[in-house]
């Protein structure tokens, strides 16, 4: 039986990936931050996962886990994830998202030297590495112009992985992940916030969504699709970096329109408050991905449309509000069943 370690297993990506691997007969050891409430909240979705607490910065702990479980694959999905908030503690962001990864790679090398056992490594890189002045669809060769501590850290780690791959022949892949969402996304991210407001409005409540720039362009995909690309990256016969994106760009204005119209509200304006400048201007201007390499090499494409994704988020929030039950496996099963089997590639 293959074993995977997933760091950050209680996040949306970790959870979807764990379920996908379990369904394929893997054993999954998933780490969560000590003291975090997410594992409790996400418990209905993590059945079968061996959930362990591990502070990402405690690299000794990571070494122990590798030694104890001898995984075939490590998926590093943990770390600091808010672009905007990364200005709050840049040193912590660089530590968590870069220095820690350097230690993980060293640990995997030492493990290989000691046991002869190769561990494949996936790193969740980010479209934010491309930063400002981007135009057209971005592929793996687009230049990095990071503009936030978050993006700087992700860009450095991205290059670190490539260096390890070249110098030590380590099977390490960067997934350049564009924005991706799900009904399990927190409301600190804009899609989660909009979906919840649309559901509240549908229940007759009067939410107010305060937003920065409505014209920001992003390539929003469904997390459930993106994790399939993550899984396939490590299942391929050679390590590469992959853009995982839908290739379609939308604005926040589009998202609001789709979310509210999915519950029959044609005019969302009474629920919106605009505060231009409330969100940092140093993030990427507009992001659109070109996932041709993932399509050609992995047979991967994003299957869910923007409207399906946003509609699913709103409807799960509606079910939460109506039932009073925040998390239930039923919220997930419907969207999981919609996934057509991906091209068979086995590790
Ligand atoms: C690729 C990247 O994707 C995610 O980072 P993010 O893009 O910052 O995600 P978000 O949902 O917070 O913002 C989306 C856009 O919406 C704008 N925006 C406007 N008004 C509000 C607002 O009121 N709240 C928020 N959160 N965003 C707002 C905001 O400025 C941004 O342009 C993470 O997964 C990250 O880990 C990652 O790697």
From TrEMBL:
Its EC number is 4.2.1.47. It comes from the Bacteria. Keywords: Lyase. It is an enzyme of class 4 (lyase). PANTHER family: GDP-MANNOSE 4,6 DEHYDRATASE (PTHR43715:SF1), GDP-MANNOSE 4,6-DEHYDRATASE (PTHR43715). Belongs to the NAD(P)-dependent epimerase/dehydratase family. GDP-mannose 4,6-dehydratase subfamily. This is GDP-mannose 4,6-dehydratase. It comes from Nocardioides dubius. The lineage of its organism: Bacteria, Bacillati, Actinomycetota, Actinomycetes, Propionibacteriales.
């Amino acid at each position: 039986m293959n074993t995977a370690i997933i760091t950050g297993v209680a996040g949306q990506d970790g959870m979807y990936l764990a379920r996908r691997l379990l369904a394929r007969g893997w054993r999954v050891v998933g780490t969560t931050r000590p003291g975090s409430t997410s594992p409790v909240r996400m418990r209905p979705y993590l059945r079968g996962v061996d959930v362990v607490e591990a502070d990402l910065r405690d690299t000794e702990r990571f070494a122990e886990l590798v030694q104890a479980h001898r995984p075939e694959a490590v998926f590093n999905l943990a770390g600091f994830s808010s672009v905007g908030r990364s200005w709050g503690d840049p040193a912590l962001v660089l530590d968590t998202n870069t220095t820690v990864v350097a230690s993980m790679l060293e640990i995997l090398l030492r493990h290989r030297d000691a046991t002869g056992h190769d561990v494949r490594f996936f790193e969740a890189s980010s479209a934010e590495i491309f930063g400002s002045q981007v135009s057209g669809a971005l592929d793996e060769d687009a230049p990095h112009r990071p503009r936030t501590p978050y993006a700087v850290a992700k860009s450095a780690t991205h290059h670190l992985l490539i260096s390890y791959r070249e110098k030590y022949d380590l099977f390490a892949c960067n997934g350049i992940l564009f924005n991706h969402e799900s009904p399990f996304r927190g409301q600190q991210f804009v899609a989660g916030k909009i979906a919840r407001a649309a559901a509240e409005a549908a229940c007759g409540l009067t939410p107010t969504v305060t937003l920065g720039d409505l014209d920001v362009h992003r390539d929003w995909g469904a997390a459930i699709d993106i994790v399939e690309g993550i899984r396939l990256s490590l299942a391929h016969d050679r390590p590469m970096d992959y853009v995982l994106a839908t290739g379609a760009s939308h604005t926040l204005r589009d998202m609001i329109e789709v979310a509210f119209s999915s519950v029959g509200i044609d005019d969302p304006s009474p629920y919106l408050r605009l505060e231009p400048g409330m969100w940092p201007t140093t993030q990427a201007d507009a992001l659109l991905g070109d996932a041709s390499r993932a399509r050609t090499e992995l047979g991967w494409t994003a299957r869910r449309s923007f409207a399906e994704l946003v509609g699913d988020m709103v409807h799960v929030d509606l079910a939460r509000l109506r039932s009073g039950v925040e998390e239930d496996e039923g919220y997930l099963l419907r969207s999981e069943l919609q996934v057509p089997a991906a091209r068979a590639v086995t590790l």
